[in-house]
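step=predict obj=Transcriptional Regulator, XRE family with Cupin sensor domain n=188
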Amino acid sequence: MDFDVGARLRAIREAKALSQRELARRAGVTNGTISLIEQNQSSPSVASLRKVLQGIPMTLAEFFSQETPPPDQIVFRPDELAELTNEIQRRNEGAISFRQVGDTSRHGLQILHETYAPGADTGRTMLAHASEEGGIVISGQIELTVDTTRYVLGPGDSYLFDSKRPHRFRNPFDAPCVIVSACTPPYL
């Protein structure tokens, strides 16, 4: 089932009694950007959607959540992970999938099962946020840039850094890359 990003954003914005212009002002984007997303004429990147949702404020996990796991749930099966990206983003070339374990509103740690298709990129604008993050490459390869240094990581390689440092993940390789990562406090 496809997740309708535009309809979801419009419903949340209207429930918060925000105009497109006010949400755009709060998020630091143009009101045209909000309009295009709501009309499904633009499929925002994870970073762009996160920026828009900060104007509400709301996390990506809350935005994409269909149902909340029970508070005492300890074990999560693969089909119980919350997908933080929409179906269109996952189908497009260069798609990224972030599947989250549990509900980050109940925990100070975010654990993700990440998949980067060939050509996937978190964006030319480097990410930076008040967290620490680490991960282990399970399969494939990923190019990680932190500050101005690029690293190529393969299966079994891992990373750990202060997320306030500008960083970017990119898969310029021919095979998908799968990473299991953690971030505290939660970022997405």
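step=describe
The helical segments are 5-15, 20-27, 31-38, 46-54, 60-64, 87-91.
step=end
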